[in-house]
Amino acid sequence: MSWLWRLLYSLAWYLALPLAFAYLWRRGARQPEYRRDWPERLGFYRQTVTGPVIWLHAVSVGETRAAQVLVNALRQRHPDHRIVLTQMTPTGRDTARQLFGDSVTVAYLPYDLPGAVGRFLRHFRPRFGVLMEMELWPNLLHGSADAGVPLYLVNARLSEKSLRGYQRVSGLVGPALARLAGVAAQGPRDAERLTSLGAKAVQVSGNIKFDFGLDSGLTELGLQWRQHMGERPVWAAACTREGEEALLLDALARQPLPEEVLLVLVPRHPQRFDEVANLLAQRGLRYLRRSQWQGDAAVPAQVQVLLGDSLGELAAYYAAVDLAFVGGSLVDLGSHSVIEPCAQGVPVLLGPSSFNFADAVAEAVALGAAQQCADADAVVAGVASLLAAPAARQGMAQAGLAFVAGHRGAVARVMTLLP
């Protein structure tokens, strides 16, 4: 009956296609890039590629950054191949261009329609494909197998919550997973869940995000920024999602930090930069936007918040602060990665929601590299406590470095799976 699931799924996609483009147009009101390159969403491309191709899909910013070490490993093994790197979001696409320039071909992955998938595969003719994390597009998986393109799912993670969702459509997802040429899961529980859905011969590789190398240029930039922030204590609220800024600001109003403390506030998505700036203005907070500060002059003492309205500088923000709250965790979005701040020796605080990185967060907390807080008030209390305790921060920093060092090697394990 899998053919019937696929038929109904494809029909649903065709019916939803006008809504998908309406969504892109609406998002384009705040982020004009969403209104560009629409033909690629249907499998029509202007980019031309000669020679053998390896295709790597990283849906957005986080996956694209994580893919950097994998791209380097694939280049080393296949120096004569061109890498086609696909995303689903403009921010992911921009990140790919920042990281790789013209050394890779950047394109959107088409919507999961049989015709669009077929056009994509015929145009680029990849020797094999690699999907990062949990990109399960049934027509893409079936279409690749039918076209003789081995497709691998790597760095795969599957939470218990996501598993329950996929189980409701197991007749669609199971047969598609079974057609993958190989699967590398982040941890044993991810492997068990993927196997229960229908994936074959799943191996555990670890999380390749532990293998990323720090960008020395961004680290140096952050250290330069810190010099211009003076001797004041500095903490970051990074990768914040909608609703979290208000929760944190409310908590700060209830239990104010010392006046000299500087908050570096970095929203996850660029389309929200203006929204967060308006929120700060409404609260009467004195703030400075990164886009208005060149980083080569002192941050005025009266500034309470530095708004990180820039792309590609997250590592620099982490390098400039004494400790960091990681967003996506006060609202029920499963948190963003704690690995990057830990790799820079930055003590980490996060809220209660961490299902996207459950194992990593649990270990970071157990090792003393991170503290998980029940709510925004607990986050602010943790910030106050740690800013007053340099020795405790130093202990968390060392624990974070050890935590990351102990997990390196995932890329090498993934490469044993790939051609």
Automatic annotation (TrEMBL):
Enzyme class: transferase
Known EC number: 2.4.99.12
Reaction equations catalysed: lipid IVA (E. coli) + CMP-3-deoxy-beta-D-manno-octulosonate = alpha-Kdo-(2->6)-lipid IVA (E. coli) + CMP + H(+)
Pathway entry: Bacterial outer membrane biogenesis; LPS core biosynthesis
Keyword set includes Calcium: no
GO molecular function, one term: transferase activity
InterPro entries, per the entry: Glycos_transf_N, Glycos_transf_N_sf, Kdotransferase
Keywords of the record: Cell membrane, Lipopolysaccharide biosynthesis, Membrane, Transferase
Domain of life where this protein originates: Bacteria
Domain 3-deoxy-D-manno-octulosonic-acid transferase N-terminal: 37-211
Keyword presence, Cell membrane: yes
Functional summary from the UniProt entry: Involved in lipopolysaccharide (LPS) biosynthesis. Catalyzes the transfer of 3-deoxy-D-manno-octulosonate (Kdo) residue(s) from CMP-Kdo to lipid IV(A), the tetraacyldisaccharide-1,4'-bisphosphate precursor of lipid A.
The family this protein is said to belong to: Belongs to the glycosyltransferase group 1 family.
Name of this protein: 3-deoxy-D-manno-octulosonic acid transferase
Organism: Chitinimonas prasina
Protein's gene: waaA
